[in-house]
Amino acid sequence: MIEAAMLLGKSSNSLSMWEYIDSTELLTTSSAIAVLQIPAGAQVGDLLVAVISPGNESIKTEMISGGWQRLTSGDQDYVCVTRLTSFTERPSYRKAAANAVYATLAAFRSSGWSSVSPDFS
User: Helix %, strand %, coil % for the chain, to 5?
Assistant: First the structure.
């Protein structure tokens, strides 16, 4: 799904069951923690995909928000995903040093996926 979304260029059409909803972006160059906003159009149940591109690959950039699944290993958390709930933390990245980092957070919706409600009882 993530690969298809990237190939489709942030569009939704009949080629995918997943509908692109909205995204937010951030460019930071300091060593401060980078925090992305949840896209305005996102709703509980949507799939959130956070993607980063660090300027210097040797400076560790790590997702520090709880509840996010990392899809890569090593010193860079390039792609992280989660399902939006009322408890979802905004994606926050800690950098080991000052580094240019471009980050984007995209929300996707699927009628089957997004309507599933977790049972926490």
Answer: 10, 35, 55
What does the chain come to in residues? 121
pTM of the predicted structure, to 2 decimals = 0.80
The helix or strand, by DSSP H or E, that contains position 24, with its residue range, turns out to be strand 19-28
Q: How many CB atoms lie within 10 A of CB 43?
A: 11
Both tokens of 114, joined, read 């997004």
Greatest pairwise CA separation for the chain in angstroms: 45
Q: Answer whether 4's CB lies under 8 Å from 16's CB.
A: yes
Helix (H) / strand (E) element for 50: namely strand 47-54
pLDDT digits (tens, 9 = 90+) for 4-47: 554 444 455 555 577 889 999 999 999 999 999 999 999 999 99
